[in-house]
Amino acid sequence: MSVRQHTLAPNTAFATPYYVINSHRSGPVFMIVSGIHGNEPASIAAAQALAGKFQRSELTLGRGKLIIVPLVNQRAYRRKSRGVPDLNRTFPHTAKYRAGHPLSDALFALAKRHRPVWYLDLHEANGLSQHNPRRVGQTLMVSRGTRAASAARRIISIMNRSVSVPSYRFNIKHRERAGTSRMAVQQLLGAKAVTVETCWSLDFALRVKYQQRIVRHFLKAAGMMN
Ligand SMILES: [Zn+2]
To answer: How close is the Cα of 21 to the center of ligand 1, in Å?
Structure first.
């Protein structure tokens, strides 16, 4: 296994690191993206922690290739803001349409180059979906009827066995919104794409733990980790 650090949008004000973890064995390409919104710190911390664990060989990739972009929008993160414009509305809607921001353009180009089979976009949100089904906190968001949706449903049932507080349990959320990175990689690159949302009001360390655990369940489901 090798772990290489690269730079997304190099030589621009938006430059940010990403990691390519290569098992050097055949298998799927899996992409994890976090920090498209700058004010969702647990998802960013989880992606950074996972990259660090692979760098220190505390985690091993058994098959395929894993790409982690832990903090897409560095500027928004420093300002603790979601980001202006909202990057997750600027990804290409159609193959002819170009992304509306240098960061979403660079991120989509990276995905296009690697053609991920799996794509996880890590986020955080307000509210608990168990309390209010209109809230997206503690959900996995997918497009209805996709293979990603059935995988997400299985992972939610595995995850929820280890979530002791009933109101913290995860639900599936069906949502389609053009311009999001999930919809772009799903529709234009054919990836199995899922948005992970933890709830802001929970303890930070717990949110980081949930995010990491969900990622690892998906990597196991993809046959890339034990
Ligand atoms: Zn978000």
So the answer is: 25
CA of 195 to the centre of ligand 1 (A): 9
**What distance in angstroms lies between residue 226's CA and the mean position of ligand 1's atoms?**
29
Supply the DSSP string of 47-82, one letter for each residue: HHHHHHHHHTTSS---SSEEEEE--S-HHHHHTTS-
Q: Determine the Cα–Cα distance for residues 47 and 40; give it in Å rounded to an integer.
A: 12
Q: How far apart are CA 190 and CA 122, in angstroms?
A: 19
- State pLDDT tens for residues 103-139: 999 999 999 999 999 999 999 999 999 999 999 999 9
Gap from CA of 109 to ligand 1 centroid (Å): 20
Confidence of residue 97 (pLDDT cuts 50, 70, 90): confident
> How many Å lie between the centroid of ligand 1 and the Cα of residue 26?
32
Q: Give me the architecture of the 2-221 domain, per CATH.
A: 3-Layer(aba) Sandwich (3.40)
Cα–Cα dist 216/175, whole Å: 23
Element (H, E) at 16: strand 16-22
